[in-house]
Amino acid sequence: MRDTARDSQPKNTIVTPLEEEIPTDMSNSKARFPLSWQAIFTGALFLFMYLPILVLMFYSFNQSAYSAGWEGFTLEWYRRLFADDRIGKALFNSVKVAGLAVAVSAVLGTLMAVGLSRYEFRGKKLYQGISYLPLIIPDIAISVATLVFLAAVGISLSIWTIVAAHIVFCLAYIALAVSTRLADLDSNLEEAALDLGATPVEAFLKVLLPQLMPGIASGCLIAFVLSMDDLLISSFTAGAGATTLPMEIFSRIRTGVKPDVNALSVILIGASGILAFVAENLRYRSEQQ
Amino acid sequence: MSVSTKHQPPSNNFGPQGDSGNPRFGSRWLGPLALLGPAGVWLIFLLVLPTLVIFEISLVPNIKPGGIVNPSGLDNYFLAFQGVYIMVVLRSLFLAIGSTLLCLLLGFPVAYWLAILAPQRWRNLMLMSFILPLWTSSLLRSYAWITILRPTGVLNSVLGFVGLPGLELLNRPPAVLIGMTYSFLPYMVLILYSSLEKLDRQLLEASADLGATPPETFWKVTVPQALPGIAAGSLLVFITSLGDFVDPELLGGASSGTAARLIYDRFLGQTQNWGFGAALSMLLIMAVSIAIALLLKYGDRDAQP
């Protein structure tokens, strides 16, 4: 039995594409949408996933945000939102932090991923382990550590300390995306460039980097979204006046439902929908190559 | 600071990995240093040293900002296992385990349907739309549940409409459980999907041919093959919900303090006690490390059926 499992592993790739024509499963109706209980269950959970988003949309246009029923259509909350400069300022801070952190991480993370794939050295496992630690350690622990360290060495908090702290986790996500891309690249191209007389720097910039671009781009996108979304690390490392958007939202909704936050949610959800679409497009295109 | 030499690629024992073994790099260590140095320095200053510093601070009882650091023992750690705090630690574990089980229970049929039963050409699109909410603000998604779960909220309006008594969930642990399950379900589905997608369909077929009933095939063929995915997905949900701050804070009310909220309050709240907060953070890091060590130890064994 064991051997069959192992032997049939490569065949698996052949079986899958055929599957549309030849149903291989126990269920007979595979060509059309089969109405199994799993299908109904999945449908219900789709509703579950989108319910909160629909609810926010509904209430952002509702005249009375505090009652459960529909009290009539209004754009009042959106008007109030756009008149609120604290939101605008917080959004600006967030974009600034995310933009800077991602820009620095894109360079450091790409170099790191290339370095890790290219060299063997003592302590490589340790280096690798540490670099992916931010993906695993809870945000709250990273926040606390960064705050205590900054206090211990006497660096005063500002918007720059947020950027510095965000680079740590942005780095990990970008390096991860670049490593994945590196794993299925043809390393012969770079070698050929070197053989043809390119300097290592030229070979890196002109041959390797363009090939890595889809990985870098999708890593940057994820890092940007996560940086924009971060509440804890920003809260712990922000100096006076460096309020980011999640911090501003958090301070408002801590005390309950706020109708203008509903309106803000709808706008942000729209924006992230567009980002997700761009990201998927990038991924799709890089797979086509 | 002596740690800072650690990242430097050692000059000994350095051999380029076959493919790009070009001797044209100026000297043997220039390449590695240029590629790995900048990120290494950053990680040492903003991740490694900070973690060492909170470990040091965690040994100081009753420290406040500006206080004198005088490490004197494990009192802060003992405190975490006393009185009210042990309740908080246990509640955090309960919520993390609960949301992991809920995610597994809800996520498995979805991943199974998406990976095996759904029409091939729709699979990717449907998986993508299922995890799409991950792209939106986690804070706002949890916030939306306030509107749904509050006493006069959406859920109770619907229940009232069909003639059922209302539920009081908000500001109680069940609301936190719902919020966490909602927040982390997409991760679980994503990981289970990639594990089920690789499932050897010929084995399912063979099992059916040999006379196994569908439940038998499911428990004896499908589940064992999906076990690494189940373990990885559960671990991810467990560690993320163990450190989650937003869901307990927004949905849990005063009755559902968790470790993350306790840490937050010891640093940014009214009852500041950096040493205790640091000790709790260390405990959180240790709990996560233990979970990962368990996965690495038993996960590998599961990978070879």
Describe, in plain words, how this protein is organized in 3D:
- The complex is a heterodimer of chains A (289) and B (305).
- Chain A is mainly alpha-helical and 289 residues long.
- Chain A has helices spanning 2-18, 37-60, 76-83, 85-118, 124-136, 139-153, 159-183, 188-195, 200-229, 232-237, 245-253, 259-288; one strand at residues 119-120.
- Chain A has a single domain, classed as MetI-like fold, CATH 1.10.3720.10.
- Chain A has twelve helices and one strand.
- In chain A, helix 4 crosses helix 11 (245-253) and helix 7 (159-183) packs across helix 9.
- Chain A starts with a helix and ends with a helix.
- Residues 1-25 of chain B have low confidence and may be disordered.
- Chain B has one domain (76-303): MetI-like (MetI-like fold).
- Chain B has helices spanning 30-57, 75-79, 83-117, 120-131, 138-149, 154-161, 173-197, 201-209, 214-242, 246-251, 259-268, 274-303, and one strand spanning 15-16.
- Chains A and B meet through helix 1, helix 2, helix 4, strand 1 and helix 5 of A and strand 1, helix 1, helix 3, helix 4 and helix 5 of B.
- Strand 1 (119-120) of chain A pairs antiparallel with strand 1 of chain B.
What are the defining features of this structure?
heterodimer, A: 289 residues, mainly alpha, MetI-like fold, 12 helices, disordered N terminus, B: 305 residues, 69% helix, 1% strand, transport (chain A), MetI-like_sf (chain A), ABC transporter permease (chain A), membrane (chain A)
Q: What is the H level of CATH, i.e. the homologous superfamily of chain B?
A: MetI-like
Q: What count of structural domains of chain A?
A: 1
CATH architecture group name of chain B: Orthogonal Bundle
Mean pLDDT of chain A: 79
Supply the CATH architecture of chain A. Answer: Orthogonal Bundle
DSSP strand tally of chain B: 1
